[in-house]
Design brief:
The protein contains 5 helices and 5 strands; from the N terminus they run H-H-E-E-E-E-H-E-H-H. It has a domain of about 90 residues. The protein has a 5-stranded antiparallel sheet, with helices on both faces. It is of the alpha+beta class and about 140 residues long. Helix 1 packs across helix 2 and helix 4 packs antiparallel against helix 5. The longest helix is centred in the last third of the chain and has 21 residues. The mean pLDDT is about 80.
Length: about 140
């Protein structure tokens, strides 16, 4: 369980969840990139991306405290908010960061980009992983 001394921004994370849920009734499903981007803008948490339990996913990384912060993990049957030391998050919940995916998420989520750019990113990501699966 996360305590407020480990993550002093826990209340802000809850506010971000509520804000996105008001705009998207399917929250947290398919809201990971939007949520990670809001946590980056409002709290300053870095964006990370890769796989969570073999699903494409985006989350945040508190580099100062070396914590993985995920406010959309609930879509995978996990706690609504995960704030854990990076190593523990990888071991306990099977987070697999991917620097290439992270780079592409960042390229497609710059503030000046529109939602269309995010949709293009998701299409590219699906094609990329489909190719990998065909080869293996």
């Amino acid at each position: 369980m996360t305590n407020i001394s480990i993550a002093p921004y826990l209340e802000k994370l809850r506010q971000i969840q509520e804000e996105i849920a008001r705009a998207n009734p399917n929250f947290p499903a398919n809201c990971c990139t939007e949520s990670a981007l809001k946590a980056y803008k409002k709290i300053g948490l870095d964006i990370d991306a890769g796989k969570l339990r073999w699903q494409d996913h985006t989350w945040n990384w508190d580099r100062e405290r070396n914590l993985y912060v995920d406010i959309t993990a609930g879509q995978f049957g996990l706690p609504d908010i995960i704030v854990l030391p990076r190593k523990e998050a990888i071991e306990k919940y099977a987070y697999f960061p991917n620097p290439t995916t992270r780079k592409n998420v960042l390229a497609f989520t710059k503030p000046s980009k529109t939602q269309t750019r995010l949709e293009e990113f998701y299409a590219w990501q699906r094609e990329f992983y489909d190719e990998i699966l065909e080869v293996s």
